[in-house]
Amino acid sequence: MKFQKHDPHPFLQSSIDKLWTLKSDDPTSQYSARSYPDGCVTIIFNYGDPINLTIDDRPIRQAPETAYLYGNVTRYFQFDLQGTIDLISINFKPGKVFPLLNLPLNEFTNLGWDCRDLSAEIGDELFSKLGELSSDNARIQQLENWLLGKYACELLHDPITNFVTGQISLTHGNLNIESLADKSGISLRQLERKFRQQVGISPKSLGNIIRFRRIQDLLKSSAKQSLLHIAYDHGYFDHAHLTRDFKKFAGVTPSYFSQYLPYF
Fold first, then answer.
1. Is the same domain home to 165 and 138?
2. Last residue of a domain, one of 134, 154, 174
3. Which residues contact 262 (CB under 8 A, 6 or more apart)?
4. pTM, full prediction
5. What average pLDDT does this structure show over 179-194?
6. Are 85 and 27 in contact (CB under 8 A)?
7. Tally of domains within the chain
8. Which of 33, 111, 183, 184 is the most buried (most CB within 10 A)?
9. Which region among 167-181, 202-216, 230-244 has the lowest average model confidence (pLDDT)?
10. Alpha-carbon Rg of the chain, whole angstroms?
11. Does an H or E element contain 33, and which?
């Protein structure tokens, strides 16, 4: 089993959160992992056997040799692979996949969708071009060239969505969304509508997920902090409040997560 993270092209780093490949030619391979909400919309190009996922207690079976879009998830999910494994995964930062599809992303929250039904350019043309290449590095370069062309020549990101998602990320979700809407020059309702369309979830939900991501990092950091200290630093009333919120996203308590679960 070969897993490799790839650093996105510098121009794409404002749009891409993660870019990775996973490959095994052994038909008896098995791989299972738990993944957590991260505020990203993901496209997975699968050139191997089917992927089995469970999102929000709902099983999703991705067809073999297809590209799939996974919308924002609001709680942990499980994915299981068996057989030939050959994946390219690209996680788009909040709001950054919308210009590629121009579809309301709230319709894909906690769902997986065959890209052939959404975009022939991605689901058919790009998928085929990547599949013709033999090495992961060549595929990544081809994928990045396609994205560079899109983002540089054809697409404009929404400045308000850019500003708000940037502020949420910068503050790790610890900010007042209503005041942020005022700074953006639109009403809270307009901002929420824009977010549901372009991000897939509300600004408040994104803020909670970004805060959860920050706490994951702290729990897995070598510089250990007490849960009470983390709670107060991130706007929670107390340790119990943090634990309830964390368990909603991760399915386990912060203490259990920090000791036993891997963090991808």
1. no
2. 154
3. 33
4. 0.92
5. 94
6. no
7. 2
8. 184
9. 230-244
10. 19
11. strand 30-35
Q: Tokens 């005022």 label which residue? A: 182
Q: Check whether residue 102 and residue 23 sit in a common domain.
A: yes
What are the structure tokens assigned to 224, written together? 């250990």
Query: The tokens 């210009």 sit on which residue?
Result: 99
Residues forming beta bridges with residue 228, ordered by sequence position: none
* Sheet of strand 58-62: strand arrangement: 30-35, 77-82, 51-55, 58-62
Compute CA 81 distance to the chain's CA centroid, rounded to the nearest angstrom.
Answer: 19
Are 204 and 217 part of one and the same domain?
yes
Question: Measured between alpha carbons, how far is 97 from 99 in angstroms, rounded to an integer?
Answer: 6
User: Which tokens in the block code for residue 138?
Assistant: 């060549």
> How large is the angle between the packed helices 159-170 and 188-198, nearest 10 degrees?
90
Residue 24 and residue 137 in one domain = yes
1 pLDDT tier (thresholds 50, 70, 90): confident
Q: Helix, strand or coil for residue 123?
A: helix
DSSP characters over 195-242: HHHHTSS-HHHHHHHHHHHHHHHHHHSSS---HHHHHHHTT-SSHHHH
Side chain identity, residue 32: S
